[in-house]
Amino acid sequence: MDDLDRNILAQLSGDARMSVAVLARRLRVARSTVQARLERLETTGAIAGYTLRLGETARAARIRATVLLAIEPRAQAAVLSRLKTIPQVERIHTTSGRVDMLLLLAAESTSDLDDTLDRIGAVEGVRSSESLIHLSTKLDRAV
């Protein structure tokens, strides 16, 4: 990946709907060059897809939380399989340190969040959990 590829990704990170023609103009390269680079970035997996990011007004209606999980030894695969079936679980990261997994949740209400946390705590192999409710977003640079 060279500077042009990184610049293409940076531009698309700001606006995934940007046309190839606009990208080419902004980057001062031929449209065919941008098209070929996009195809290569997609083929190699550098671009996994094009999506939208919800704005704060759309996200404000949902309660977000981070859950830190400690997992029993050798239970990670089974726990991961069960967590993937819970629709409120948006992301799952394995971690190093005092916890084994970090989950990002989005719930429709406090009762939905409470039920979700109960479901997670009841998963066989979950040793302990700690939940952190997100109050506000001060910076979001996620791509």
Report the biggest beta sheet as strand number plus sense, adding barrel if it closes.
Answer: 4 strands, antiparallel
Query: How many strands?
Result: 4
Helix content: 40-55%
Class by alpha and beta content: alpha+beta
Strand composition percent: 15-25%
Radius of gyration, whole Å: 20 Å
Which residues form runs of ≥5 with pLDDT under 50?
none
Order of helical and strand elements = HHHHEHEEHE
The global form is elongated
In the sheet with the most strands, the strands line up as 2-3-1-4
Mean pLDDT over the residues: 91
What is the count of DSSP helices, taking H or I runs of 4+ residues?
6
The quaternary structure here is: single chain
Gap from first CA to last CA = 17 Å
Helix-strand layout with pairing:
Layout (H helix, E strand, L loop, with lengths): L2 H12 L5 H8 L3 H13 L12 H4 L3 E9 L4 H8 L5 E6 L6 E7 L2 H13 L3 E8 L10
Antiparallel strand pairs: 1-3, 1-4, 2-3
Helix pairs in contact: 2-3
